Amino acid sequence: MAVYTEVPDEDLKAFLAGYDAGTLLSFKGIAEGVENTNYIVHTDRGSYILTLYEKRVDPGDLPFFLDLMAHLSAKGMTCPVPLRDRDGHALGMLCERPAALISFLEGVWVRKPNVEHCRALGDTMAAMHKAALDFSGTRRNALSVGDWRPIFASVADRADTLQAGLADEMERELTYLEANWPQDLPAGIIHADLFPDNVFFINSRLSGLIDFYFACRDALAYDVAVCLNAWCFEPDLSFNVTKARALLTAYAGRRALSQAEYDALPLLARGAAMRFFVTRLYDWLNHPPGAFVRPKDPLEYAKRIRFHRSVTNTREYGLD
Amino acid sequence: MAVYTEVPDEDLKAFLAGYDAGTLLSFKGIAEGVENTNYIVHTDRGSYILTLYEKRVDPGDLPFFLDLMAHLSAKGMTCPVPLRDRDGHALGMLCERPAALISFLEGVWVRKPNVEHCRALGDTMAAMHKAALDFSGTRRNALSVGDWRPIFASVADRADTLQAGLADEMERELTYLEANWPQDLPAGIIHADLFPDNVFFINSRLSGLIDFYFACRDALAYDVAVCLNAWCFEPDLSFNVTKARALLTAYAGRRALSQAEYDALPLLARGAAMRFFVTRLYDWLNHPPGAFVRPKDPLEYAKRIRFHRSVTNTREYGLD
Hints:
Two copies of one chain form a homodimer. In chain A, a hairpin with a 2-residue loop joins strand 2 and strand 3 (46-52). The radius of gyration of chain A is 20 Å and the shape is globular. Chain A has nine helices and ten strands. Helices cover 40% and strands 16% of the residues of chain A. Chain A has two domains: 9-103, Phosphorylase Kinase, domain 1 (2-Layer Sandwich); 115-317, Aminoglycoside phosphotransferase (APH), C-terminal lobe (Aminoglycoside 3'-phosphotransferase, Chain: A, domain 2). The A-B interface holds A 1-3, 8-10, 23-32, 40, 42, 47, 104-112, 200, 202-203, 288-292 and B 1-3, 8-10, 23-32, 40, 42, 47, 104-112, 200, 202-203, 288-292.
């Protein structure tokens, strides 16, 4: 939530001159994106997002992300699309950082998603999974089951400062997940971070998906499991089975889920919750005092893990 | 440079419903404005700035600022204009803060102003001064000569940590300014903060002025003196007499400066530099460690004070 790189006006004008994007009218740094610096750019052709990729992003991954957005857009999905410069490149350099000029996607993210929002999400996520089936790029999920333990281990000795017994509980949970993680589910390109702030609506219509910077190849049902965590818990962390049913039914209406996928959902949901638990725990315990960005509470995800651990039957996700 | 208040989507929609501003398409917090929270709002009617006024602004001053913008715009100046809601009010409440929806002014602020930019600024500043002559609102300059000493006194005991002898030097300077400050110069509404980031250009054309939240009634030539400080020093703090000549000549071409105003310029420029010196010194010495906003170096303004103190003749500002 910050502008890490201040772009001088002359540098931006020189950068834009490489594109067929019109005359610069204004640009303003926006307070979104924890990983990158983003500006809204207005030209006489329209609105764009200028993204400068900061240190936390591997430059080698950027062609995958940008090509994926272009692919999905070409298949009819609404998502931001990187412009190509006059030499055909989607990725340039600005202020010594990799940078891309991306179409501006209108839409508002919903702070309090309701059942209809969950239904629209399920439908659109399935459409995205299908649209990406013939995408030739690939990228390993850098935050999959084998990656959680090293992150957890680096802060485990301080985990009990948040809650007594937390370190032991999550140690056991990790061991269980590692031993039982499903390997043969239908795989494809997943978004991997489809939280409400990455899904735009205009009025009640889903207007598009953004922020593909965690996208990777993994089990498609894992994306669904991320969304069960991100969309179907109420602020008091009670699970809203009506939202889950709407999400899962809409998804399956567009892309059928196999029995193996249904059976794996509780375990995938535990894993998805663990993925966000470990990164939040790390950020929480490595947060510089006085820093501007307030870290998110990892215990919210510990509670989600416990909920999914209690699920013995997908009926508890609202399925018949 | 921050979003202090996160506005939920539903609250913004309810707020916008009070205006004839179209359907909300998107809104994003922007990393500009040290005092207030600002969002870029896109609707199907166009682009707007939504400003939430935070603690540092006196709510009693807001009608003056908003009415001034409306007045200047009605007189043909390009500046942001507050929209009136269906009840005719320019000021509303959002997230428990005073808030205004303001037209979006296109333009880019120039990081390295050249002589032509200074010329355009002089001309437009004079036009603004004339356009405001029949504005009925008034507001005391809360950062005028009598206000500098209390700010300085609150941190003077630590001033020498920046530079040996600084406290004594500025103490003497304040005494001189207080004793000699001119009282009878032509007065009117001034912007009082016309730094480059508040002056927009599209290509080389000045496209408008923004951020009237320091505007007040004071000597018109004091506004000119602020600009001599803000626009006519090079990054190495050498004074660029060509820029000063362009600025002053263009100003006088639209609004004649009296002999008394010319004669007062070196003193006004010392005072204007002191105004920014004391607030920067205060922010520098009261800066919470680790805070996100990096304070600006007050010594840059100590050097400007010394330059203007050395000026014995307005020829040194490029005048014949």
